[in-house]
Amino acid sequence: MCSVMHSSLARLRRSSLDTSLPVDRARVLDTLVNNLEGMAYRCLDDADWTMLFVSHGCLELTGYASHELIEGGCVSWEELTYAEDRAGVRSEIAGAIAAGKRFSVQYRILTGAGDVKWVIERGIAVADETGRPVIEGFIEDVSVRHRTLKALEHAELRYRHIFEHASEGIFQTTRDGRYLAANPALAKLYGYATAQELIDDLADIERRLYVEESRREKFRHLMEAHGEVVNFESEVFCRDGSKIWISENAHIVRGAHGEFICYEGTVQDITERKSYQEQLERQANHDLLTGLPNRNLLADRLGQAIARAERLGYFLALVFIDLDNFKFINDSLGHTAGDELLVEISSRLRRCLRTSDTVARQGGDEFVLVLNDHYRVNSIISLLERVLVEIGRPVSLSGREFQVGASLGVALYPQDGGDASSLLKHADVAMYAAKDRGRNNFQFFTHELNHLADERLNLETAMRAGIDLDEFAVHFQPKVDHRRRIVGVEALARWNNPEFGSVAPDRFIPIAEETGLIVPLTEVILRKAFAAAARWLPIHGHAIQVAVNLSPKLFLGEEIVNRVAALLREAGLAPERVELEVTESVFLGDSERAVRILGEFKDLGVGLAMDDFGTGYSSLSYLRRFPLDIIKIDRSLVTGIEHEEEVAMIARAVISLGQSLRKTVVAEGVENQAQFDFLRFQGCNEFQGYLIARPMPAGDFEQLLARSGGQL
Ligand code: C2E
Ligand code: MG
Ligand code: MG
Fold first, then answer.
1. 546, 579 Cβ separation under 8 angstroms
2. pLDDT tens-digit profile of 241-255?
3. How far apart are CA 532 and CA 523, in angstroms?
4. Cα-to-centroid distance, 264 and ligand 3 (Å)
5. Do the Cβ atoms of 293 and 301 come closer than 8 Å?
6. Mean pLDDT of 516-521
7. Whole-number Å distance between alpha carbons of 624 and 619
8. 3-state secondary structure (DSSP) of residue 106
9. Ligand 2 centroid – CA 468 distance (Å)
10. Residue 505: CB within 6 Å of ligand 1?
């Protein structure tokens, strides 16, 4: 009899003992056998498994009624057994019988309706009432369970496949940081040959894996608080000690009753993305050319510096640096040389500062320094002096030595501004003040300078409009020879604005140069100057020369020669009557270009004058190399000439230099007779200044000509 029945009967027996009631065993047995799901049987161990008895369950299990199976009435069990499984069933049962044991075998049957069912048969060989060997047992339908199991098996297989072959690392760990499972991808990620090696070796995740010690604690904290972590990025050690960046997604696995089982999650190697990100961040925060912090990072550093100064009570100095003449070098020597210069200057600046200070590149030729922890303004001043000296050391570019200066503007925290933007603004204002002071110096911000800055902006706007509204005029200042006969005039721009009144060229010309307004402005001035000059008749048998000023930027720009030629044609003025005044900075950079343009002007027939000689580099070599006709001695070398021996000496030298090079020497700013006499005695050719006449409108000059007969 089958085991199920044995145990049920044993229980019944015990309960009958408990209650001491007589039990109709045959009836109980009958009920059980016929009501259990499945089929109880007795059969012969023959080729057909000839059934001697089957319970009522037979019909439901096989689709045949009991009598159709008994004694092979209609079909034998051997026939019911799925053909492919028959041999297996037989050998299993034979083996158990030979060993005198119970058997349990799973196989398929074909039901009367033609369905295939999975059954499990459990039985035992026994002797019947007559001593004949028979088999008794129980067969039940396990198709559903079988299908479920198979599905599970498949699922497990599929998941195992994913686990084994995933490109992401997958893990299960305990709370205290031991691996329960890891897949090959994780092993590979961390530098192990197999997952087992990783599990064995990496016994303490907390201390062995994360570079930042508190990382595992953070991971655990998030897990316990939210049940999961999402895109948790950390730097970790690999087996060989190298470091990589990973991103983890993980959750807590809980049992049916909510009990903790493990942490489970995936790991992705994001080292490449991280380094790309870092690179992007670097690019976002640093200037590519010099590697210095850029505006972004500067804002950040400045914020920190302000907080620090606030806390410690020290000064914080914000310094704006603008290189003098940079644009000039960049335009004339080319961008490569300009870049070289910027790189050189940035490394010099870096060397001047302490590591806690910041040098940033603000763009173009502008740098910003953030100087921390100064408790005396004096120490800032000496630092700035050092910075100026460093910047001023010669720089070798394209095989030539150059000297650049810088204008520095300083704003101090807290007195010049309480936040980053006002400090920056005020340092910028101070820097412009430094530029106005003649460059290569530094200026501290004072509140009056604010007004200056505003005015500058207003001037620019007004100038734009003023060009259109024809607010610009030309005045003419006569030049005379040693007998005070008029030989020419210098055309000087004048601006009369309804709001600002009359604005001096020294104020608006630099702004025009910076904003590009110099191009339309010069056009206006030249047109007016040439038109006036074209009206003037010769005097003492000589044509009256007209000198015009050309700013260096314009001079080196494109098309200038053609523009001037066109304006001359337009006015009907002979080129020989015009002198172009340029300053020395024209020769500072790309001298090849300067020589070429000068040559083209020469070919056109205009005269060329070096203006303001004696103020800048005043190199003798310029005078020899460039085809200049005229040298204009700057007013600073004329003022004081009559009683300052040193000034007189320089003026004398310049005049004799001009004479030996066969240039016309003109003195500017002659204000008194003593100066005139001295200069004339030294051999100066022409004279210009308030002594002779102030600049005046064309009409006034024409009257003066008529009145004086050309003798002043
Ligand atoms: P600059 O070319 O050296 O012109 C001479 C300046 O000296 C003029 O100043 C003139 O008025 C001034 N001056 C002449 N004689 C005396 C004197 O005896 N005493 C004193 N104290 N000053 C005297 P201004 O007109 O104010 O022009 C200043 C500068 O602005 C000019 O210096 C020139 O560099 C520039 N400038 C003027 N007009 C133009 C222009 O149309 N184009 C360009 N690019 N620059 C111009
Ligand atoms: Mg001039
Ligand atoms: Mg001058």
1. yes
2. 999 999 999 999 999
3. 14
4. 83
5. yes
6. 91
7. 9
8. strand
9. 24
10. yes
**At a CB cut-off of 8 Å and minimum separation 6, what does 240 contact?**
191
- Residue 9, pLDDT score: 45
Task: Return d(Cα 606, Cα 563) in angstroms, integer.
Answer: 13
CA-closest residue to ligand 1 atom 21:
669
CB neighbours of 335 closer than 8 A, spacing ≥ 6? none
Strand-pair partners of 686: 666
Q: What are phi and psi of 233, to 5 degrees?
A: -100, 130
Distance (angstroms) between ligand 1 centre and the Cα of 463 equals 18
- Which is nearest to 667 in space by CA: 646, 643, 642, 703? 642
Confidence at 22, pLDDT banded by 50, 70, 90 = confident
> CA 253, CA 264: separation in Å to the nearest integer?
7
Contact 549 CB / ligand 1 (< 6 Å): yes
Tokens of 463: 């100038």
For ligand 1, whether the C-beta of 506 sits within 6 Å is: yes
Token code pair at residue 395: 């720089």
Q: What are phi and psi of 172, to 5 degrees?
A: -130, 135
Tell me if 585 CB under 6 Å of ligand 1.
Answer: no
Express as a percent the part of the chain with pLDDT over 70: 94
pLDDT reading at 451 higher than 80 = no
pLDDT at 565 over 60: yes
Spatial separation of the C-alpha atoms in residues 534 and 276, rounded to whole Å: 67
Q: What φ, ψ does residue 111 adopt, rounded to 5°? A: -80, 170
Q: pLDDT class for 189, splitting at 50, 70, 90?
A: very high
CB 81 within 8 Å of CB 89: yes
Give 492 Cα–ligand 1 centroid separation in angstroms.
Answer: 6
Q: Which sign, positive or negative, has the C-alpha torsion 461, 467, 468, 474?
A: positive
Kindly report the backbone phi and psi dihedral angles of residue 56, in degrees, each rounded to the nearest multiple of 5, phi listed first: -60, -25
Question: E-strand spans in 538-621?
Answer: 545-549, 578-582, 607-613
Whether the per-residue pLDDT at 266 is higher than 80: the answer is yes
